[in-house]
């Protein structure tokens, strides 16, 4: 996989796209990010893509955790994007489970985008998007994350089309919504002060997706390249579950893959996909927790004498009772 490109001077290539700040009503999760986490703990985010992942699903899930959508949108004013956009944030249900449905709305298309690859937005090149990332107020860690995500996607698209990375002009990443999904997700991680990330197995469906060059098998060619070295699992579902932008975010942000690490779970967020599948919730679940290094757990606290800790009779299995 490609390594992140070094820092670039934003003056070398002027941004070709613009944003208009329109107030949005933030939708918050029921469990906000806990700023009182231990100073010794690392803030860890685990991605659970049981139904796939797209860039807007990740950004929506991070907003569900408490990331500030207004601050994210305002940050994009630095880019002077030629196609104004607004963030549309709604709370929806997928199979009865609530989540945040985020859409990037532009003047050329005043409705939410489906996760297909036949968009007809203004296309931009790799260097232009890297220049945009330089103009956003990232800290050093976030800038490296953003550069890596953009570079990985550019490298995958270049491999698909058999051209040099510097010459690639994107169908997927060149759209305003995909730029906002990628760089906005990195901004949200910075707001939430996420130290490390992990991801569970990524679903591998069957069928085809309509792209600018015709019907392609799913995952789409660029997505398949991006999922190299990422654990996947075949599922009996059709259609696109993982977009190139979603795959680039997984590949560029996650430090490890597999089950969640040992951690104290602090908050759960859900980002909704566009389709409302009647059988599987079309959601990305994210788990925010704190991990402690061995030795940092501290002394065990004695259980108060008046606590309800009466031992169970011998041979009786422990049970958890939930009152309806």
Which key phrases capture this entry?
324 residues; alpha/beta; five-stranded mixed beta sheet; two-stranded antiparallel ribbon; 7 helices; 11 strands; disordered N terminus; disordered C terminus
What are the SSEs and their pairings?
Blueprint: E1 42-48, H1 55-65, H2 69-75, E2 85-94, E3 97-106, H3 126-135, H4 140-161, H5 176-191, E4 196-199, E5 202-206, E6 208-211, E7 214-217, H6 221-226, E8 232-238, H7 244-253, E9 256-257, E10 264-272, E11 283-291
Parallel strand pairs: 1-4, 4-9, 5-8
Antiparallel strand pairs: 1-11, 2-3, 6-7, 10-11
Helix pairs in contact: 1-5, 1-7, 3-4, 4-5, 4-7
Question: Can you give a write-up of this model?
Answer:
The longest helix has 22 residues, at 140-161. The chain has a five-stranded mixed beta sheet. The chain is 25% helix and 22% strand. Strand 2 and strand 3 form a beta hairpin. The N and C termini lie far apart (50 Å). Helix 1 packs parallel to helix 5 (176-191), helix 4 (140-161) packs antiparallel against helix 5 and helix 4 (140-161) crosses helix 7. It is globular and about 45 Å long. The protein has one domain (43-291). It is built from seven helices and eleven strands. It is α/β, with parallel strands linked by helices. The protein has helices at residues 55-65, 69-75, 126-135, 140-161, 176-191, 221-226, 244-253; strands at 42-48, 85-94, 97-106, 196-199, 202-206, 208-211, 214-217, 232-238, 256-257, 264-272, 283-291. The model is unreliable at 1-35, 111-121 and 309-324 (pLDDT under 50).
The average pLDDT is 80
- How many helices? The count is 7
SS strand fraction: 15-25%
Question: In angstroms, what is the radius of gyration?
Answer: 21 Å
Principal-axes geometry comes out as: globular
Q: How much helix, percentage-wise, in residues?
A: 25-40%
The biggest sheet, with number of strands, parallel, antiparallel or mixed sense and barrel status, is: 5 strands, mixed
Number of strands: 11
Q: How would you write the strand order of the largest sheet? A: 9-4-1-11-10
By helix and strand content, what is the structural category? alpha/beta
The run of helices and strands is: EHHEEHHHEEEEHEHEEE
* Low-confidence residue ranges: 1-35, 111-121, 309-324
End-to-end Cα distance, whole Å, is: 50 Å
How many individual domains?
Answer: 1
């Amino acid at each position: 996989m490609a390594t992140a490109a070094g820092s670039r001077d934003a003056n070398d290539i002027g941004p070709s796209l613009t944003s208009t700040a329109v107030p949005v009503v933030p939708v918050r999760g029921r469990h906000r990010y806990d700023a009182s986490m231990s100073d010794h703990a690392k803030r860890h985010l685990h991605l659970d893509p049981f139904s796939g992942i797209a860039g807007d699903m990740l950004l929506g899930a991070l907003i569900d955790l408490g990331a500030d959508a207004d601050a994210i949108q305002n940050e994009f004013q630095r880019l002077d994007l030629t196609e104004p956009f607004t963030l549309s944030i709604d709370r929806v249900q997928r199979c009865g489970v609530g989540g945040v449905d985020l859409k990037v709305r532009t003047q050329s298309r005043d409705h939410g985008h489906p996760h297909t690859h036949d968009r007809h937005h203004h296309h931009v090149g790799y260097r232009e998007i890297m220049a945009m990332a330089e103009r956003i107020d990232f800290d050093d860690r976030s800038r490296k994350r953003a550069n890596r995500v953009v570079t990985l996607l550019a490298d995958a698209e270049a491999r698909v089309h058999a051209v040099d990375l510097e010459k690639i002009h994107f169908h997927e990443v060149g759209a305003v919504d995909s730029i906002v999904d990628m760089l906005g997700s990195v901004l949200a991680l910075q707001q939430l002060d996420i130290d490390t990330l992990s991801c569970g197995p990524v679903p591998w469906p069957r069928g085809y997706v309509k792209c600018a060059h015709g019907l392609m098998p799913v995952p789409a060619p660029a997505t398949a390249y991006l999922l190299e070295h990422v654990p996947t699992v075949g599922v009996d579902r059709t259609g696109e579950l993982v977009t190139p932008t979603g795959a680039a975010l997984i590949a560029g942000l996650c430090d490890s893959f597999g089950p969640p690490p040992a951690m104290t779970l602090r908050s759960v967020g859900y980002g909704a996909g566009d389709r409302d599948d009647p059988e599987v919730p079309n959601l990305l679940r994210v788990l925010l927790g704190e991990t402690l290094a061995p030795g940092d757990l501290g002394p065990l606290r004695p259980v108060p004498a008046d606590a309800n800790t009466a031992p169970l009779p011998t041979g009786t299995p422990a049970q958890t009772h939930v009152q309806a």
